[in-house]
Structure formats: structure tokens, C-alpha cells
């Protein structure tokens, strides 16, 4: 005897036919996706003026930790001296934080009150 299922078998779903979008000329149009990744937030290391740290020390610190030549370092130091603060460099967050620590440790070891901070670039 032949047994039949009470319901006929359900046909396997058929994938809808998809075609690349075509214009009238038959060429393929690639759809643009809006870019989802933003460039990372960058951080500027800002050095602050004080009345006690020797200018020469600041110049050497800027040369050493911010990879500036002596003339550029001197200009940055003078800007800080005159304006109260100045940007020594712009980096990713972790690199900027490391620069701040390096400067503060060098200043601490030398007994100078030199301060610098990292802040997000606008
Ligand atoms: N103002 C300091 C002086 O006259 C020099 C100085 C410059 C200190 C820059 C800190 O970030 C600084 N000796």
C-alpha cells in the first residue's frame, strides 16, 4: 500500500531573480553606499607657559619629544612664552597621551613645573 502525506510537499523556495541595475545602455550601475567610517578624532598636545622653566629646557623637550628641529622648537617655545600656550603636535589619542606623560616625566626629573595637556582637535 502507498501512504501519502496529508499535505503535498511544499516546493523549495526559489530565490528571487536579482539582476544588477542596468541603465538603458546595458551597463552595470554600482550603487554608492554612504561612507560609514569617520577618520579618528585627533588630539593636539598643548604646552603651557610658566615663569620658572628655562627656555632652553622647553626647546630641548620640544625637539626631543615632538621631533622638531631647533629653529622650529624655538619658535614654538617663544609662542608659548608670549601667548601662554602653544601646540607642539597633533596625534592619535594614545600617542598624544604618551607625549604628555613623557614631557611631564622629563620636567619632573629636572625639577621644572612645565605642564602640557592633550585636547581634541576641533
Ligand atoms: N616663560 C619661561 C621663562 O621665561 C619659558 C617657558 C616657555 C616656560 C614655554 C614654559 O612652555 C613654556 N623662562
Describe the fold and architecture:
It is built from 3 helices and 3 strands, in the order βααβαβ. With 122 residues, the protein is α+β, with helices and mostly antiparallel strands. It has a domain at 42-120: Ribosomal Protein L30, Chain: A (2-Layer Sandwich), CATH 3.30.1390. L-tyrosinamide (TYC) is lined by residues 47-51, 53-55, 58, 77, 80-81, 114.
Looking at the overall shape, the CATH architecture of the domain at 42-120 is: 2-Layer Sandwich
Terminal residue distance = 82 Å
CATH class designation of the domain at 42-120: Alpha Beta
Named once each, the bound ligands are: L-tyrosinamide
CATH 4th-level superfamily of the domain at 42-120: Ribosomal protein L7/L12, C-terminal domain/Adaptor protein ClpS
Short account of what is shown:
The protein has helices at residues 55-66, 70-83, 93-110; strands spanning 43-48, 85-91, 115-120. The chain is of the alpha+beta class. The longest helix is centred in the C-terminal third of the chain and has 18 residues, at 93-110.
What characteristics describe this protein?
alpha+beta, 3 strands, Ribosomal Protein L30, Chain: A, disordered N terminus, single chain, 36% helix, binds L-tyrosinamide, 122 residues, three-stranded antiparallel β-sheet, 16% strand
Reconstruct the topology from this structure.
Blueprint: E1 43-48, H1 55-66, H2 70-83, E2 85-91, H3 93-110, E3 115-120
Antiparallel strand pairs: 1-2, 1-3
Amino acid at each position: 500500500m502507498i501512504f501519502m502525506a496529508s499535505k503535498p510537499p511544499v516546493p523549495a523556495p526559489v530565490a528571487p531573480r536579482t539582476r544588477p541595475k542596468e541603465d538603458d545602455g546595458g551597463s552595470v550601475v554600482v550603487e554608492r553606499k554612504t561612507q560609514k567610517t569617520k577618520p579618528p578624532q585627533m588630539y593636539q598636545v598643548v604646552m603651557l607657559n610658566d615663569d620658572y622653566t628655562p627656555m632652553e629646557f622647553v626647546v630641548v623637550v620640544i625637539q626631543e619629544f615632538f621631533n622638531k628641529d631647533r629653529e622650529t622648537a624655538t619658535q614654538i617655545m617663544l609662542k608659548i612664552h608670549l601667548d601662554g600656550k602653544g601646540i607642539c603636535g597633533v596625534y592619535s589619542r594614545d600617542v598624544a597621551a604618551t607625549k604628555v606623560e613623557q614631557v611631564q616625566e622629563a620636567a619632573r626629573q629636572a625639577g621644572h613645573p612645565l605642564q602640557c595637556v592633550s585636547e581634541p582637535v576641533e
